[in-house]
Specification:
229 residues, mainly alpha, 3 helical TM bundles of succinate and fumarate reductases, 9 helices, binds protoporphyrin IX containing FE
């Protein structure tokens, strides 16, 4: 196992870890959004989806455990790489391009930590029922105990909650856009002709995901999704 640890500690190992865990987390965010979009199709659709997920039993727990490990590895590697970067370069850069590069990676640490705070809040809200126990209790009232629709629509009818969720999507957009660009760079997709295409693709994908989440968060206030009775 020590070779695995040595690989993780190496500079290339750190980059590969960030790329692999980043892609897995990106996949989760896409799948989560696609699942949550069922909210637009009405209570039966989103509740059936939630029930289907929970009926996976042990498989769901394996997936949750895997997601947690991937998430922790992503954060731990990011912290290690950012520390190593600082130690390697105590004197500021002279060239503007490199100054921009360090600004981008610093803002990644900032957006990443902000997302960490958002995810913790989100889990306390919808998964553990700590922040809004009244809304969380509604989840257990549906057929088979899966009224996710009631929990989510009641929560998003509170402007402060909907706005916090929507605002977090700006940070998610910035983080995903830069993450996708870095991923392409790690793959070696760095070329005068391809780089602008990769950058545009990263912007479009990140914008679609962030806009989809923000749309859901604001859908109740906008009158697109009705609050469950
Ligand atoms: C408006 C957008 C979102 C909605 C409506 C939403 C909804 C939900 C709901 C209802 C759950 C609880 C599932 C359950 O235990 O029954 C959940 C879990 C979760 N959400 Fe979200 N979510 C949104 C955005 C996000 C974003 C942007 C992220 C990550 C950046 C995220 C990460 C997670 C994670 C990690 C879980 C725990 C997964 C699990 O343990 O099964 N969510 N979400």
């Amino acid at each position: 196992m020590s070779w695995l640890f040595d690989f993780w500690r190496s500079s290339i190992g750190g980059k590969v870890t960030m790329a692999v865990t980043g892609v897995l987390l990106f996949g989760f965010v896409v799948a989560h959004l696609l699942g949550n979009l069922q909210l637009l199709a009405g209570p039966d659709a989103i509740n059936a989806y939630a029930k289907w997920l929970h009926d996976r039993g042990a498989l769901l727990w394996v997936a949750r455990g895997g997601l947690l490990v991937v998430f922790l590895l992503h954060v731990a590697t990011a912290v290690r790489l950012s520390r190593a970067n600082k130690q390697a370069r105590p004197v500021p850069y002279a060239s503007e391009a490199t100054v921009q590069a360090t600004f981008a990676s610093r803002s990644m640490v900032f957006s990443g930590l902000t997302l960490l705070v958002f995810v913790v809040y989100h889990l306390l809200h919808f998964t553990f029922g700590v922040t809004n126990p009244g809304d969380f209790a509604r989840k257990g009232n549906g057929a088979g105990g899966f009224d996710v629709h009631a929990m989510v629509t009641h929560s998003f009818s509170v402007p402060a909650i909907a706005v916090v969720y929507a605002a977090a999507q700006i940070v998610l957009f910035l983080h995903l856009r830069h993450g996708l660009r870095s991923f392409a760079q790690t793959l070696g997709l760095c070329h005068r002709r391809y780089t602008p295409i990769v950058e545009r693709l990263a912007t479009v994908l990140a914008a679609l995901i962030a806009a989809g989440n923000a749309f859901l968060a604001l859908s109740v206030l906008a009158g697109i999704v009705k609050v469950a009775q």
